[in-house]
Specification:
The strands form 3 sheets. The protein has a 5-stranded parallel β-sheet, sandwiched between helices. A 4-stranded parallel β-sheet has the order 10-9-8-11. A two-stranded antiparallel ribbon has the order 1-7. It has 9 helices and 11 strands. The protein folds into 2 domains: 131 residues, 2-Layer Sandwich (Aconitase, domain 3), CATH 3.30.499.10; 110 residues, Aconitase, domain 3 (2-Layer Sandwich). By secondary structure, it is an alpha/beta fold. Keywords: Iron, Iron-sulfur, Isomerase, Lyase, Metal-binding. InterPro entries: Acnase/IPM_dHydase_lsu_aba_1/3, Acoase/IPM_deHydtase_lsu_aba, Aconitase_4Fe-4S_dom, IPM_dehydratase_rel_enz. GO terms for molecular function: iron-sulfur cluster binding; isomerase activity; lyase activity; metal ion binding. This is Isopropylmalate/citramalate isomerase large subunit.
Length: 279
Amino acid sequence: MGYTISEKIMARASGNEQVHSDDIVWVDIDRAMMDDVLGPRLEIDDRLREMGVDVWDPDKVVIISDHYTPPANLHQANIVKFTREWAAEHKISRYYEFAGPCHQVMVEHGHVLPGSVVVGTDSHTCTYGALASFATGVGSTEMAGVLATGQTWMKVPQTIRVVWNGELPERVMAKDISLKTIGAVGHSGATYKTLEYAGDTIRRMIMDERLCLTNMAVEAGAKAGIVGYDDVTAEYLARFGVSERYDHLNSDPDAVFCAEYAFTAGELAPQVACPHEVD
């Protein structure tokens, strides 16, 4: 029996030769991302002080002030100031301000590698799965534990495989694929599961389009969204100067999926999500 991308990443990160969906494992975190809204000021600083510990590895932490830059009022300005000073105090060199949205900064500055485990204090951290990583959002309390230990526990998620084949019609794009998929799966149909996108439609997509797909995975309740590694992944990483070695991961042909959906891209029309739910 083969393994999904999620199972392969979880096995490596937990130090096991193999894991299977629904196993509970402790995983080493390769990168922890915080933004200004749910970053150090909220629970994290207080919890670390209570435990009497510092950040386990400042080189694996990225802090991005993006929600409140530029600040709209004094309150927001003080939050950004606190975040900036906290990063300096804890010797976190990967601090960004006025650099763009946190998820864009993460991928365009080479902070996400295929096969890595990334957690972030934003629900759309799942965006990074477009680079064949396992990325998921966490709350501030859980992030405090990650910063203290470099680990967290996870249940290895089951994987829903979503296959799109064919050419997209004119004016139909990745966002339409995402909305159509969520409409089929349901707005909570992928809760604590991985949405893995595959098929020749996906393989033809540039990375910006893939990032759109994985960004929206959480809107179906997914723990992660993933696209397998290929030449598009390699070219994107090279474009931004990534030279570190990384895993080239795809699900095995005989991997076990909890559900599979198949769509024909040529039949897709522009999609609109009406209130009050995305599906």
